[in-house]
Every structure is written in C-alpha cells, then in structure tokens.
Design goal:
Layout lengths: L24 E12 L2 E13 L4 E5 L6 H8 L7 E6 L7 E4 L11 H5 L1 H5 L4 H14 L15 H13 L5 E5 L7 H18 L2 E6 L2 H7 L2 E5 L6 E6 L14 H16 L7
Helix pairs in contact: 7-8
Bound molecules: adenosine-5'-triphosphate.
InterPro entries: AAA+_ATPase, ABC_transporter-like_ATP-bd, ABC_transporter-like_CS, ABC_transporter_ATP-bind, P-loop_NTPase
Keywords: ATP-binding, Nucleotide-binding, Transport
Organism: Pseudolabrys taiwanensis
Length: 274
C-alpha cells in the first residue's frame, strides 16, 4: 500500500484484463467557469480521469471544490467550458443519477416516482412496474409502494431515489452525496446496501462525498479534489476485499487510509482556519 502523496494523478487500474481496460467514463481535461453577476467563477481547473467498467470511484474534496459540477458535466446536465467527457456503452441513456436530496415528486406515489425516468423516456411503465416493485422490496420498501414521499422517513426517501436511478438498468450510477443528510446509523446501513447492490449488478459508480470513512468503505479508488478551482491532487487505491463489512473500519489499514486522506484534505483546503 503506497500512501505517499503524489503530485501526478494516478488513474491506472491494476489487475484488469487488457480487454477490459477501455474506460467506461473518460474525463479529459475538463474545466468549468461559471459567469454570474459577480464575475467569473472558475469551479474546475483541468480534471482528467479514466473510470473503468465496474469500478466504484469516490470524489472527495472540500465544499465548493467543484465535485457536483464535475458530476453534472459527466451527466450531461452542464456543459464543460474546456475539455470533454466521453461515455462508452449507452452514453447518457445508460446513466442513473442520485441527487443530494431525494427530489421525489410529492404528488406521485413512491412506485410512480421510481417509474418517472420510464415516463420521461416514453417507455411503457407497465413493463417496468414489476421491476420497480422488486427494487423497492430489495431496498426494504415493500408495502410502501403506494405511499406519498412525505409519509416516508429521509432514509426511505433516499432509498426510493436510488430505486428510481436503477429502474432503467443504468450502466453508470452517478451519486451526489446521496446519504449526506441522513443520520449516521441509516447512512451505515445504506452504505452496506449500496455496496451489495453494486456488487450484484456490476455497475460503474461515481460517488461524491464529504465523508472520508464512507469513501474508504465504498470505493476501489478515492479521488481527492483540491479547493476551488478543483483539480485532482491524488487518486488512492483502496485495497480491501469485497464484500466489506462495517467492521473493516476498525482495521489499522482503514485508519491509515483515513489519516492519509485527511492529511491531503488539510493540505488542499478542506479545513480553513478563518
Ligand atoms: N450555476 C452556478 N453559477 C455560478 N457559480 C456556481 C454555479 N454552480 C456552482 N457554482 C460555484 O462553483 C463552485 C463549485 O460548486 P460545486 O457545487 O460544484 O462544488 P461542490 O464541491 O459540489 O460543493 P459542495 O461539496 O458544498 O456540494 C462553487 O464556488 C459554486 O459557488
């Protein structure tokens, strides 16, 4: 395990057969400048990263460093000012997105919220209803299909939002701090459920978080992004076998990874002294 900070981002994947080495997501020198009434804000410097099929990658960085911006550019919700993103496979049609807040539609039932992407894509919801029911059952929401979002807890709503992201069987799962607003126990529970689902379905996952331990627990690689304008300062391989239980957080290696990442975040602006 090499934990030394490097100035060059590392984006190679070990132990992968050459045929599988085509990235699922290629982020090539992506930069973003926002123009507002207060002037120009450079949210992202120049970010390059290759993400391989079936990888679980976390973006970890200080508030405002451009993590959401990068995710939105990958999802095609935002244009890059410079550089480009290339998605293999189904492209944007193969994306599932889970936002910071669940953004469920209050006037739709839970199952109809899960079916929303199917409606948007003008596919026949009937064919997907059984799948929606299965997904909701997998995420502990059996019996809540016909409730409205306000009748569910925050954790349950976020589970429903994950089901919605999965309904059209995406190849790429983009998640923007999906568990940030949840209590610690629910967050742990959902981390384990997410890992299990990701392992079963072999999706490529790009996950934004502020939590060092969540990033280490879930990821194959943790990408550390510097303070605004965001750039990659290091990509850390997390070498724990899968499936991982929450007990790995007690292991010395987990502590080493966490300390190393905390040190990088301190160096790169996560803990301001002002
Ligand atoms: N639409 C916009 N117009 C102008 N500035 C924006 C816009 N969206 C984001 N920004 C600015 O770009 C920078 C990066 O924002 P972004 O939301 O990507 O950061 P982040 O790392 O996801 O933050 P957080 O972790 O707090 O969610 C911030 O300074 C933000 O104020």
């Amino acid at each position: 395990m090499a934990l030394a900070a490097t100035s060059e981002p590392v984006s190679t994947l070990k132990d992968v057969a050459p045929a599988a080495r085509q990235p699922a997501i290629e982020i090539d020198a992506v930069g973003k400048v926002y123009h507002s009434s207060d002037g120009a804000v450079t949210a992202l410097g120049s970010v390059s990263l290759d993400i391989y099929p079936g990888e679980f990658i976390s973006l970890l960085g200080p508030s405002g460093c451009g993590k959401t911006t990068l995710l939105r550019i990958v999802a095609g919700l935002e244009d890059a000012s410079t550089g480009h993103v290339h998605l293999r496979g189904r492209g944007l049609d193969g994306l599932g997105f889970v936002f910071q807040r669940d953004v469920l539609v209050n006037w739709r039932t839970i199952i109809d919220n899960v079916l929303l992407p199917i409606d948007f894509k003008n596919k026949k919801p009937k064919a997907y209803r059984e799948k929606a029911q299965q997904l909701l059952a997998t995420f502990g929401l059996k019996g809540f299909e016909n409730k409205r979002p306000w009748e569910l807890s925050g954790g349950m709503r976020q589970r429903a939002a994950i089901c919605r992201a999965l309904i059209d069987d995406p190849e790429l799962l983009l998640m923007d701090e999906p568990f940030g607003a949840l209590d610690a126990l629910t967050r742990d529970e959902l981390n384990v459920e997410l890992q299990s689902l990701w392992q079963k379905t072999a999706k490529t996952a790009l996950f934004v978080t502020h939590s060092i331990s969540e990033a280490v627990f879930l990821s194959d690689r943790v990408v550390v992004v510097s303070d605004k304008p965001g750039r990659i300062v290091e990509v850390l391989d997390i070498d724990f076998p899968r499936p991982r239980s929450l007990d790995i957080r007690e292991e010395p290696k987990f502590g080493q990874y966490s300390r190393h990442l905390r040190g990088l975040l301190e160096q790169h602006g996560a803990f301001r002294k002002d």
